[in-house]
Design brief:
This protein is an alpha/beta fold. The chain has one domain: 3-Layer(aba) Sandwich (Rossmann fold), CATH 3.40.50. The chain contains twelve helices and 16 strands. The strands form three sheets. Strands 2, 3, 4, 5, 10, 14, 15 and 16 form an eight-stranded mixed sheet that branches. Strands 1, 6, 7, 8 and 9 form a five-stranded antiparallel sheet that branches. Strand 6 and strand 7 (192-200) form a beta hairpin. Bound molecules: S-adenosylmethionine. Residues 58, 73, 75-76, 103-106, 109, 132-135, 138, 175-177, 180-181 line the site of S-adenosylmethionine (SAM). S-adenosylmethionine binds next to loops.
Length: 392
């Protein structure tokens, strides 16, 4: 596979990082060696590379976010994104009962902004914030950051590693969580759909076809008659995720924000290498076998499939729109004005942040918002220009 921008090498990595990557490579190659066919599905490889105990990318404790890490998410770049999400939560929720659950909270940046938005607007007794974070390292990092907020609302945050069993009434948020879920890969070989797996040649991981795999219905429907070599991804576990989420959500709305496409664009013939990509120190590449455990591996979200999973689990899909339209609908202009009141440096920084969030060439169009509700109907200003029909 070609690497689009591999201007870095293993020499750029610290000895500690290399040692961890070696241990993780040994763990994964041993698992491959223990299989009958000497190959594991790609989603298993991705799961170990990102989440293996103490070694995986999201759990090992290296810097992931921001300038010193590998990528910058919207909540990391300033308060605008979080204030607009908080605005949407305020519109949905009764001010006497503001309950928010955030999945995969990263450094805690979004929670930080949302808490500061509600501080002074509502009473502490009427506020609850839960974070569901599978990475022990990241939840520790979130606790340290959020303990520094000067607001009594921050005392109401609770942490969980998976959905708790008690029911939830409120707004749930998942920003850039679904793109971090392990994906299967499928390709057309000699006119047939085959699953791609990962083997080990003694030095490197290599792609290998898995024989006798079960091809998901969506992949069969979309890829039949596609050209030789066409490759794509599918995150099967999103269906299971919604089934589990359903046990937790008693009444409320889930806001999903992520990069991705509807079916028609996800399976476009031009996207013949799929959407798999990796981030290492802000360099984009398409080689998941480079520096295993030290770089992010991600795929774009198929929002049509995600909506299908939500519907099958009993949710309604109420809204789908671009990030730009969602933020503008949630008073982005007002928040830009408020945050720009300092000196010209503040105004410049906020303008740059706004441009990054809404320009079509940056995050404005490629990132989408989707709202899934359960037993709660609400008008949401973020979805005033609702493109739900595009989901198919
Ligand atoms: C790309 S980061 C995004 C972090 C943060 N939401 C942000 O926007 O900065 C992905 C996050 O999702 C978490 N994650 C992955 N799978 C998850 C799951 N099934 N449930 C909850 N969080 C998950 C990761 O541990 C990590 O915190």
């Amino acid at each position: 596979m070609k690497n689009s921008d591999q201007t870095f090498s293993l020499q750029d990595i610290s000895p500690k990082g290399l040692e961890r990557s070696r241990k993780l490579t040994h763990l994964i190659s041993s698992e491959i060696g223990a299989t009958r066919q000497q190959v594991i599905p790609f989603d298993r490889f991705m799961s170990l590379a990102l989440y293996a105990d103490s070694l995986g990318y999201y759990v090992a404790g290296q810097e992931i976010f921001g300038a010193k890490g590998d990528f910058v998410t919207a909540p990391e770049s300033g308060d605008l994104f979080g204030f607009c999400i908080a605005e949407q939560c305020a519109e949905i929720l009764d001010e006497n009962d503001v309950a928010i659950t955030e999945f995969g909270a990263g450094t805690g940046a979004l929670a930080d902004t949302i808490i500061r938005y509600f501080d002074g607007k509502i009473s502490v007794d009427n506020f609850n914030y839960s974070i569901i974070e599978p990475s022990p390292h990241l939840s520790q990092r979130q606790k340290i950051r959020l303990s520094k907020i000067n607001s009594r609302l921050a005392d109401k945050i609770k942490w969980y590693t998976t959905c708790p069993s008690e029911g939830f009434f409120g707004v749930a948020i998942a920003n850039e969580v679904f793109d971090a879920m392990p994906a299967k890969r499928f390709t057309i070989q000699r006119g047939e759909i085959k699953e791609l797996g990962v083997a080990y040649d003694g030095e490197n991981f290599i792609w290998e076809i898995i024989e006798c795999s079960v091809i998901p219905e969506l992949i069969r429907d979309q890829m039949s008659n596609y050209p030789e070599g066409y490759t794509t991804e599918h995150v099967e576990t999103q269906g299971i995720w919604f089934e589990q989420f359903k046990k937790f959500m008693k009444r409320g709305i889930l806001l999903v924000a992520d990069y991705g496409y509807v079916n028609q664009d996800f399976f476009h013939l031009d996207r013949c290498d799929g959407t798999l990509r990796c981030y290492f120190k802000h360099h984009l590449n398409d080689n998941p076998f480079f520096a295993v455990g030290l770089q992010d591996i991600t795929t774009s979200v198929n929002f049509s499939y995600l909506a299908e999973c939500a519907l099958s689990a009993g949710f309604a899909v109420d809204g789908f729109t671009s990030q730009a339209k969602f933020l503008i609908g949630n008073k982005l202009g007002d928040h830009i004005a408020t945050l720009s009141v300092g000196d010209s440096v503040d105004a410049y920084r906020v303008a740059q942040e706004a441009k990054r969030l809404i320009l079509p060439s940056q995050m404005g169009e490629s990132f989408k918002f989707m709202a899934c509700s359960y037993r709660l109907e609400k008008n949401m200003s973020g979805f005033a220009d609702n493109e739900r029909f595009r989901l198919g």
